[in-house]
Amino acid sequence: MANKNQPSGAAQSRAGAKAARREAARAELRRVQAQQRRTRLLWTGVVVAVVVVIFGAVALFGINHNGGSGTKTTAAGTKLEQTMASIPSAAYDSRNVVLPSNPPKSLKGADALTENGKPRVLYVGAEYCPYCAAERWAVVSALSRFGTFRDLGQTTSSHIDVFPDTPTLSFHGSSYTSKYIAFKGYETESNQVQGRSYAPLDQLSTADGKIFDKYDFPPYFDSKGAIPFIDFGGSYASQGASYTPQLFSGKTQQQVADQITDPSTDISKSVIGTADVFTAAICQLTHNQPSNVCTSPGVTAARAALPQ
């Protein structure tokens, strides 16, 4: 007889994926902390001039004081939200956009993902994740063509991961309204170190956890439970970043947003190229509404990148 208290397979899979992500974060923290210990021992074992000792102590204090946490999330503010909401059609329709080499994959046979009769887009990421940091710009760019974000955050990826301190937005605590689609964005962990991992943020609902467990794994993707993960209405899904986070190195969030609006910049070419593909996927869910977006030159060209 089955044990009623035994967790379901989906729950075990979800717990395993979360544990894998946390273990990866812990491993990175252990590596950095070990490097910090080696650095402290080196300074302790070397007798140098007083000025050098002082310099080393200051440097070590700076490393330890930061502790690996990224910049704390703050409100994006009206100017940044308005910049992202008013990207000109010249950017979306530029012939110089770079379409992603890893476009969304088909979820043929999957149940439609809807909410209140509208197709629904699901995003799962984390604030510490540099690849999530990069991809959010395209997600916000695409979704802003169908509706309006409110209370977005601005933050950076982890200070100690690859592509450290990548400037980005955050969906934690934000809202989205649209007459065409619904959207839910989860940031499962912050960029603030807590113990040997990062502080938890958003908990996936049971239903969304099942979707993540089912589609963010082989055979749909090679990597198991990787983020960012995006489900477009149960028709398409995307995993990972579509372009390198290196594009945003050394820039503020507002500088990134300003460059997205300028089709001559490398940031705009990459972010908008991906946003056009995401828009094309969403347009298939909305039956090409709004028509001015879904029939635009950039979206029409981007449809070729989607699996048929």
Strand-helix topology:
Blueprint: H1 9-45, H2 50-66, E1 74-75, H3 78-85, H4 89-92, E2 105-106, E3 114-115, E4 118-125, H5 130-143, E5 148-150, E6 153-156, E7 167-170, E8 175-177, E9 182-187, E10 189-194, E11 197-200, H6 206-215, E12 229-232, E13 236-239, H7 253-260, H8 266-285, H9 291-294, H10 297-302
Parallel strand pairs: 4-9
Antiparallel strand pairs: 1-6, 2-13, 3-4, 4-12, 5-8, 6-7, 10-11, 12-13
Structural features, described:
The chain is α+β, with helices and mostly antiparallel strands. It has one domain. Helix content is 42%, strand content 17%. Strands 2, 3, 4, 9, 12 and 13 form a six-stranded mixed sheet that branches. The protein has a three-stranded antiparallel sheet with strand order 1-6-7. Strand 10 and strand 11 form a beta hairpin. The model is unreliable at 1-6 and 35-66 (pLDDT under 50).
Main attributes of the structure:
308 residues, globular, alpha+beta, disordered N terminus, three-stranded antiparallel β-sheet, six-stranded mixed β-sheet, single chain
Tell the overall outline.
globular
**Helical residue percent band:** 40-55%
How would you characterize the largest beta sheet? 6 strands, mixed
Order of helices and strands: HHEHHEEEHEEEEEEEHEEHHHH
Give me the count of strands: 13
